[in-house]
Amino acid sequence: MAPRPLRLTSRRPPRKLLFILLLILGPICIIGVFTYRQKISYFFRPIWDRPPPPFQHLPHYYAENVSMDYLCRLHGWSLRSEPRRVFDGIIFSNELDMLEIRWKELHPYVTKFVILEANTTFTGIPKPLYFAENRDRYAFAENKIFHGIFPGRIASYGSHEDPFKLEAEHRIAMNGLLRRAGISVGDLLIMSDTDEIPSPHTVKLLQWCDGVPPVLHLELRHYMYSFEFPVDYSSWRATTHIYSQWTQYRHSRQTDVILSDAGWHCSFCFRYLKEFVFKMTAYSHADRVRHRDFLKYSRIQNLICRGDDLFDMLPEEYSFKDLIKKMGSIPRSASAVHIPAYLIENAEKFKFLLPGGCVRSPG
Ligand SMILES: *[C@@H]1O[C@H](CO)[C@@H](O)[C@H](O)[C@H]1NC(C)=O
Ligand SMILES: *[C@@H]1O[C@H](CO)[C@@H](O)[C@H](O)[C@H]1NC(C)=O
């Protein structure tokens, strides 16, 4: 055993000094805890919250110009004699640009675009029917659109409408809308938010192959504000279903299998600053908008260009390792490869979603 080094000196600070320090630092710590209470509780989330059970990741194969028959067989499936009909069901808020990109990408494969929009927000504030008012913009898909309006409730002053309950009611209304749109057993149904866009070749694969799992999550590349800020591959809520009489429209964990790298999820990918503000107040997580300053255009613009969090909160992560890795800004990417083709074909129109395009106009 190695001998311990001898401690030659032991100098302690005088007691009086310690006492004074405590007197000064104590109140500062208490004030800090109050100010950052929300942040601190998020930071300790890994202790009190369990991660969702892990997914089984299905390998996903794709290259241009490979035959459908070969692709189906690579996945362990077989080619159908004819493609499944595809129904794309979304609950729409105000993502007008993402809607255009979504429908342009999926148009060749989709039978009916089923879109439900409410005349109030999830937080009970009256809202314009953004889709109905801008329907002309989607004339290219007109013969495939099946639009429904959800009559929302206005929250009375001071009352707290539970946004998650309202969201659940939307999903029930969606079941009825899909049936009225003519969905039937065996069709492929996409359940996702407007900004969760399956890649076209993924939809084509699932509509042309027999043997695909009846319920399948889609792993999407997650972006924030634009395709310039790729976050990770964490987006998993979108699903595809081979429709059966028991299928229920949902946006939560439904099965253990997930198809890898199946598309894009672009959060807060808005053209105008006013759209950011609308989404921040209408969002299910409206409790995150804590101060009026949060909604200032100049603040939002700065955060967008830095890739910082609009809500000034720590990312919601389940392990300290992930949490620490993700604190701070999202690194900027100069790649515009493997993004929706319609964006590249209309690069001028969608400049704000491409590298170098972070500056937004108020709207
Ligand atoms: C694509 O496939 C066709 C027919 O199989 C072939 O003639 C053509 O050369 C292929 N193109 C590319 C770019 O590989
Ligand atoms: C929403 O639509 C329903 C049904 O058309 C209507 O009764 C209600 O007044 C509307 N609410 C708002 C806020 O416009």
TrEMBL record:
<dbReference type="GO" id="GO:0003830">
    <property type="term" value="F:beta-1,4-mannosylglycoprotein 4-beta-N-acetylglucosaminyltransferase activity"/>
</dbReference>
<dbReference type="GO" id="GO:0016020">
    <property type="term" value="C:membrane"/>
</dbReference>
<dbReference type="Pfam" id="PF04724">
    <property type="entry name" value="Glyco_transf_17"/>
</dbReference>
<keyword id="KW-0812">Transmembrane</keyword>
<dbReference type="InterPro" id="IPR006813">
    <property type="entry name" value="Glyco_trans_17"/>
</dbReference>
<feature type="transmembrane region" description="Helical">
    <location>
        <begin position="17"/>
        <end position="36"/>
    </location>
</feature>
<keyword id="KW-0472">Membrane</keyword>
<dbReference type="GO" id="GO:0006044">
    <property type="term" value="P:N-acetylglucosamine metabolic process"/>
</dbReference>
<protein>
    <submittedName>
        <fullName>Beta-1,4-mannosyl-glycoprotein 4-beta-N-acetylglucosaminyltransferase</fullName>
    </submittedName>
</protein>
<keyword id="KW-1133">Transmembrane helix</keyword>
